[in-house]
Amino acid sequence: MSPYWLNNSCSPFGTKTTCTLGNSAVYAIDVDGPDTVAAGLKFAQENNIRLSIKNTGHDYTGKSNGQGSLELWMHHLKDMSFFKYSSPGYNGPAAKVGAGTQFFEAYKAAAEQGMRVLGGYCPSVGIAGGYVQSGGHGPLAASYGMAADNTLEFEVVTVDGKHLVASPTKNSDLYWALSGGGGGNYAVVLSLTTKAYPDGPTAGASLAFVNTDPERYLLAIGAFNKRLLSFNSIPGFATSWGFDNQAFSLDVATLPGGSQASMRTAFDPLVQELTNMNITLALYNTTIHNTFYSHYTHYDFPSEIYATNSTIGGRLIPASTVRDNLPDLLAIFRTILLDSSFPHKRISAISLNVTHDRVGNTPSSNAVLPAWRDALYTLNLAIGYDADASTPELVAVQAKMNEWQDLFEPVTPGGGAYMNEATFDNLNWKRDYFGGNYERLLGIKRKWDPGFVLWQHTSVGSDVFWELAGDGRLCRVE
User: Tell me: the pLDDT tens digits for 401-411?
Assistant: First the structure.
């Protein structure tokens, strides 16, 4: 949970002698099945109580908490099974995972079955919660598409207590919305059935260089950005990378079905270009592992990427921006790196090709933000601070993050942002997080949740029925 939303309540890092719940829920129901969810929904509506849904709690925008709310805690729904799925649209291996299943559990279980499934980089995020329901990227997305591109069906409880399945042939509008249209906003998801794929060798690589000359350093980052255009033309090639004022690091490149030789072939032109620029590599290696899971567990990431004491923003960077407008993009990077008001910062990105041609679906297949299909990478901006930072400091950080995030809009027309890794107070959230899908999603929201029982910041319909009061209550919009 972002510290901005924890609001320093019951912080184990501070020296306060009193403890308050702040933005956290007052009571939580440890969900064990559909009847428990239905009872919680019924109680909240009958007693006019704000409701919140929490799975693992990885949340930068405050969607999984709610001051004064009753919380549906989905974390212990851990059942997993692998089987052959048969439907008019897909016949093949699949995994059914409970809402509380996390990536490290799903990846390991799949590997034990000789399979792999779509998930993200951070091992403790839940696979069936806000991740997939908001699109979901990860190291296998360049091979198989976004997590939402792989959904087969959702097991849900609707706000009126009905326990049902949403798939392309059953309650198809709800299925469409749940596949990328935002987490926890249309129904309560109990489980996800997703495509699974045969496992096999996975190639990897990592690379790093330090900043010994700021201008040359920035040009080297530009050279890497240009090379991404080639990387993304390689089926299955995904990269996770980032930089700060000290160093650039490609933390992991992933290529299922690749080899160390194919990795070196991909990287050799970049390595030569960096050498010609008098950039000395602090790290460069390639690997090959027999399974995706062993590849995944081999690589580490900078600790600040998954730190709690961090506020992030983001922007999807289209390929056209790097191809046609790289100097302006690098100028923005320079502005952020030179901003001394918050010295602990990092710019990170995940680059992968999830175009419809690569994935094999169409714009009408699901509710994933259309800007993803033109993106070269999804960019994250992060500001770090002390774990016991005061509320005024957190507010100042949030304002700075929005300022930085806005710098990218002029050079990324139609770029949008990944809603899970952006700011809650972006004034253009409807356009940036949902794009042209918003109005259709709002219609589905009205159909399946006419009383707007499910509410979160920057979720579809969040400004239609309720507004958030200073004490956490949801007040009817007049």
Answer: 999 999 999 99
